[in-house]
Write a structure and sequence with these properties.
Distance between the termini: 59 Å
Number of helices: 15
Structural class: alpha/beta
CATH class of the largest domain: Alpha Beta
Shape: globular
Number of domains: 3
CATH superfamily of the largest domain: Enolase-like C-terminal domain
Largest sheet: 6 strands, mixed
Radius of gyration: 22 Å
Strand content: 5-15%
CATH topology of the largest domain: TIM Barrel
CATH architecture of the largest domain: Alpha-Beta Barrel
Length: about 425
């Protein structure tokens, strides 16, 4: 029985993965040349549109969402999201996206995503040292390119990045903290509610305020947090994994002291016990506790994550696909983590498109641990087919690209003035 090689390669995603050159693939030169000249490969990016949406209450994922749509000469539109970071005046973010796309992206093939990424990262003089003001713009462009590639080949992005490793993805959300500080027993009741909903992992931010610092907390406060954890363990035992959410608000010595007191409750992880700027201090915390240290939501590009891994500062890496450099960079970071036996637990405090990009990464990453899943009704309603969590797990979408499409009526309703 004969096989249409071109159709087979496109259906498996080999053409989209950049294997058209035939090097090391066993593809005959004639077939490789045909792949390079295929209509899918010759797609060009011709334009773009940005749209700012108003979130609903509670404004989970920030009050404003900035969506990007990359347009092509094939009529395929790729979706991306520039994570707003809590900013509500997004004019400068919109302008930066426009400048980058017009100068570095228009006229390029989305299949040349590596070239586009490096062109943006390395050519403008001030970009080689990345930051959270500019790298999220690169991330939005990158995920839109991958969405186009997936749609052009009829494949979900994870099939273009190695295939589906996980059929379902463990997910977690925050424990509702209203009233818990005043009455720790409520935490036990909330933990049982999570178990009843099929959830197996949660996180809570017991130390307030979550910004500012670094600071020390008195023993009475730490012990009170211990009572909250004990109420949860007494209620559900070991059925629920419980992560300690933090935002770098502790001193090094304060974080070590907190960890020593809370170790008995076997937390799933201790997130950002100290600020990420000083990796050596986070490594000191990691060396002094048995609680796994997690970090990464405020780090960008493979270079900053390499420091964390090399210095053994954390073993649970919470990269943010919408901020660290997009899908291209996230896959590299996840692969780096494998070499250190580290796992990924992507951060998700964003809109729904960046969340969908994280799901694509999770699905093809062998060292995926758990996906943060903070959403409200708009995360679901803005897609024609939403990504949802059921019994504590996300089923990856099987559609092409990101596997999601915008519900235009909902987008129009939520457009920001």
């Amino acid at each position: 029985m004969s096989i249409d090689r071109r159709r087979f390669l496109q259906s498996t995603g080999l053409a989209a993965a950049g294997l058209g050159a035939g090097i090391g693939t066993g593809i005959r030169p004639a077939v490789a040349e045909e792949l390079q000249d295929s209509p899918e490969r010759n797609i060009k990016i011709t334009g773009y549109r940005t749209r700012v949406l108003d979130n609903i209450d509670p404004p989970i994922g920030h009050r404003k969402w900035l969506f990007l749509e990359l347009e092509t000469d094939a009529g395929i539109v790729g979706l991306g999201e520039r994570v707003s970071g809590g900013v509500t005046e997004l004019g400068s973010q919109v302008a930066l996206l426009g400048e980058l796309i017009e100068s570095r992206v228009i006229g390029k093939s989305p299949f040349d995503v590596e070239r586009i990424w490096h062109d943006i990262y390395a050519n403008p003089h001030d970009y080689r040292h990345p930051g959270l003001s500019k790298t999220p713009a690169m991330s939005a462009i990158d995920m839109a390119c991958w969405d186009i590639m997936g749609k052009a080949t009829g494949q979900p992005i994870y099939n273009l990045l190695g295939g589906q490793f996980h059929e379902r993805l463990s997910a977690y959300a925050y424990l509702e903290m209203a009233g818990v500080w005043e009455n720790p027993e409520i935490a036990g009741e909330r933990a049982q509610e999570l178990i009843d909903r099929g959830m197996g992992v949660c996180k809570l931010d017991p130390f307030q305020p979550i910004t500012g610092g670094p600071r020390d907390y008195p023993l009475s406060t730490i012990n009170h947090v211990g009572r909250i954890f004990r109420a949860m363990r007494d209620a559900v035992g070991d059925q629920l994994e419980i992560g300690i959410g933090a935002h770098g608000q502790f001193t090094t010595s304060g974080a070590i002291r907190i960890a020593s007191i809370l170790e008995e409750f076997n937390p799933y992880f201790f997130e950002e016990p100290v600020y990420p700027e000083n990796v050596d201090e986070m490594a000191r915390v990691a060396q002094m506790t048995s609680i796994p240290i997690a970090t990464g939501e405020r780090l960008v590009t493979k270079f900053e994550f390499a420091e964390v891994l090399n210095r053994q500062a954390a073993n649970i890496i919470q990269l943010d696909v919408g901020q660290c450099g997009g899908i291209t960079e996230s896959k590299k970071i996840a692969s780096m983590c494998e070499a250190y036996y580290a796992v990924i637990a992507p951060h998700m405090y964003c809109g729904p498109i960046a969340a969908a990009a994280a799901v694509q990464l999770d699905t093809c990453s062998p060292n995926f641990l758990v996906q943060e899943f903070n959403t409200n009704d708009l995360h679901r309603d803005v897609f024609t087919t939403p990504i949802v969590i059921e019994d504590g797990y996300i089923t990856p979408p099987s559609g092409p690209g990101l596997g999601v499409e915008l519900d235009e009526a909902v987008v129009q309703r939520q457009l920001s003035d």
